[in-house]
Amino acid sequence: DRCIDLLNEVPNNKPVCFRTPCCDSLNTLSPRFFTEIFAKTTAKGNFLQADSSVMQVFTSADPALPRELVLDADGKEKFKKYLPTDRFFANSIENYPYPFVVDRLCWEFPCVAPSDWAAQHFHKPNNPQTIEDWKAALDCTVVKQGVFCLVFHPHNWIKPEQINELIDHAVTKHGKKVKFLTFREAVERLNKNVLGGQSLRSDKGRDNGVRMLDVDNDGLLDATIGNSSVQQTRVWSNQESHWLTTDFPAVLTDADRSHLTRFGAMSGVRGAMLFQPVLEKIWNFEHGHWHVKHEKHSLGTKFAFANELLLPLDLSIRDVDHDGKPNLVVVQELGISVSGWSDKCWPSAGCQQR
């Protein structure tokens, strides 16, 4: 907190991104970091908007990537070899070089593997092969039209002139296909181009009602915005390469929990479902719009939300009994209630003590 407040005191400066120490060598990143640390604000009200601590590994499992970019001459994986094998290391994803949202409030910019630490750990510092593999990783990133977030340190694991060689490769081979941005510039572009001028966090650092999900089941992420100022659904059209905007029926930022809302999916229903059990409403996204699927008295939930103790603390849509149908899991002060979907409604399974 003190570091963030101190950085905010620099004139004309607004820090936006964090990287957990040793994220390339140890499992220093965790769900608790995002929920209990990153999602908070400092005592002075300052906060961040992005993180870059997850290692992204290109592999031969991605059919879009040329084999010569992801395999060494011996046929083995070019980038997975850099993941440390002398310890348990779980902080990595594969073939997704794109920003993604973590816990509603954070843009995660994955780091390219290897880092300079991982490279020197595998084949000693300043190895020329590190630069050749970074060039291949950059070429993969251009193919995927993703982000290339490099991790390097002032610890003599890589030389400045080697970094210059990588930059020269980017400019010479790819030209305008590669754009050098700060994290602040990258977040600004996400807010403008993906979220239509909104952001994941409000001016006070709270949940701004923005959710990223595939509303039309076409395999591509869309954006929904539900706050007091904007209620909008932004559907990405891959054919037209732009966002199609339509309405959004709910507010997702209600502080008193009376409008607690969750998204889900249902067998036999193509688009996303939007559940608001307190108001007893369900919407379905189909034909480019949200339509009321079930209204009051048709849900059958029978949850008595008449007082504060019975208002839900949290909701989840899960298939807990593996029957292909959604279950509504409601956490209340008095316990947990699980309801199974039956005949277009949720008959309550009753309240179980936690």
Describe the structure.
With 354 residues, the protein is α+β, with helices and mostly antiparallel strands. It folds into 2 domains: 2-177, no CATH class; 277-354, no CATH class. The protein has 7 helices and 19 strands. It has helices at 2-8, 31-38, 67-70, 116-123, 128-144, 160-174, 183-194, and strands at 17-18, 50-51, 55-57, 92-94, 100-102, 106-108, 111-112, 210-213, 222-226, 231-237, 242-247, 262-264, 273-276, 281-286, 289-294, 314-318, 327-332, 335-340, 348-352. The strands form 5 sheets. Strands 1-2-6-5 form a 4-stranded mixed beta sheet. The protein has a 4-stranded antiparallel beta sheet with strand order 8-9-10-11, with no helix packed on it. Strand 8 (210-213) and strand 9 (222-226) form a beta hairpin. The protein is globular. The two termini are 34 Å apart. The model is unreliable at 297-309 and 349-354 (pLDDT under 50).
Instruction: Note poorly predicted spans.
Output: 297-309, 349-354
Sheet with the most strands: spatial strand order: 1-2-6-5
Strand count, sense and closure of the main sheet? 4 strands, mixed
Q: What is the 3D form?
A: globular
Number of helices: 7
Distance between the termini: 34 Å
Extended strand count: 19
In sequence order, what are the helices and strands, one letter per element? HEHEEHEEEEHHHHEEEEEEEEEEEE
Q: Based on the structure, what is the oligomeric state of the protein chains? A: single chain
Percent strand equals 15-25%
Which structural category fits the helices and strands? alpha+beta
Count of individual domains: 2
